[in-house]
Backbone:
């Protein structure tokens, strides 16, 4: 792109009368009154450096004409910075979410298998170690990663933190702080967004894939065959099966997690919203928030897994599912 200085260097080839003419009034950039002692057709003896310095000023008519008012240029620059920051946040959230899923997936697999294992009949698995043992014997190490290709497609981390930050901006006080109640409600809203738009479809398919390993004849031969079979047999209902317990579980889970994390951050900052918390403590606070939310949310997680498994037809709704589990398997199921 031609610089302003290079454009100005060529002004001596322009008719002086053209330069002296006032800018169109519609632009609102009038130079002001012209002295009667000066001639509009007389060239002004100004050296190149002086001319360039005067015209290159952010508020000069020529700079305004080519690049817009200084305020507009500053606002445009801020928008570019905001878009770049948001893009980086989304990219970082996506990569972090995918890494989290890959690292923790075997644990998630074991958890789901135990949750699907009805205690009213003879249990299939005795413990987490037994889940690993039987999976290795029957399906090899790949069995522990059954459904991983579905899970990594979930943008849940991006949706979760993006929704929370937007809700947080709407609820902070004049000091930029968020009360405990507001933090809990923002986490609740972020979890609901995450459950509806990112978690339910992915979790429903993933749990069906994992449950499929427990039968002698498996229904699904891969990701595309499995999704096609589910949609063909159950329609979109099969993809969004268990949406109510998923929203209940995810929203309360994130509400508890964000409340714990933000409260610990406020404690560390000692009431100063401008203070920074180092990455090590942030990770520690996140781990504490995750542990607390998991312990408090396990019953809802069990309901979600049962409502999304291949035997979900046994339950009329989430209330009936909870009643059947409590009556036949006890509160510890």
Residues:
């Amino acid at each position: 792109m031609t610089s302003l200085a290079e454009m100005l260097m060529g002004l001596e080839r322009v008719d002086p009368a053209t330069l002296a003419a006032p800018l169109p009034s519609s632009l609102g950039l009038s130079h002001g009154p012209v002295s009667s002692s000066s001639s509009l057709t007389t060239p002004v003896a100004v050296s190149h450096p002086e001319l360039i310095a005067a015209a290159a000023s952010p508020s000069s008519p020529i700079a305004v004409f080519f690049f817009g008012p200084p305020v507009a240029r500053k606002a445009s620059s801020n928008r570019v910075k905001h878009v770049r920051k948001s893009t980086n946040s989304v990219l970082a959230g996506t990569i972090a979410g995918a890494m989290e899923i890959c690292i923790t997936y075997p644990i998630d697999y074991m958890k789901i298998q135990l949750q699907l294992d009805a205690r009213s009949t003879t249990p299939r698995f005795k413990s987490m170690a037994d889940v690993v043992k039987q999976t290795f014997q029957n399906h090899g190490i790949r069995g522990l990663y059954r459904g991983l290709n579905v899970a990594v497609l979930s943008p849940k981390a991006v949706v979760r933190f993006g929704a929370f930050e937007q809700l947080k901006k709407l609820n902070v006080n004049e000091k930029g702080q968020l009360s405990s109640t507001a933090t809990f409600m923002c986490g609740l809203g972020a979890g609901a967004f995450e459950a509806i738009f990112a978690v339910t479809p992915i979790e429903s398919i993933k749990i069906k894939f994992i449950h499929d390993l427990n039968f002698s004849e498996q229904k699904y031969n891969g990701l595309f065959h499995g999704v096609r079979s589910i949609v063909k047999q159950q329609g979109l209902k099969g993809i969004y099966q268990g949406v109510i317990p998923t929203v209940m579980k995810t929203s309360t889970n994130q509400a508890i997690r964000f409340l714990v994390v933000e409260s610990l951050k406020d404690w560390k900052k000692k009431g100063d919203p401008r203070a920074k918390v180092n990455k090590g403590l942030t990770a520690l606070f996140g781990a504490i928030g995750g542990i607390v939310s998991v312990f408090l949310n396990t019953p809802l997680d069990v309901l979600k897994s049962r409502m999304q498994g291949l035997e979900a037809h046994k339950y009329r709704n989430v209330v009936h599912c909870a009643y059947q589990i409590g009556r036949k398997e006890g509160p510890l199921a």
Summary: Residues 26-32, 34-47 have pLDDT under 50 and may be disordered. The two ends are 68 Å apart (CA to CA). The chain is about 65% helix and 0% strand. The CA atoms of residues 151 and 202 lie 6 Å apart.
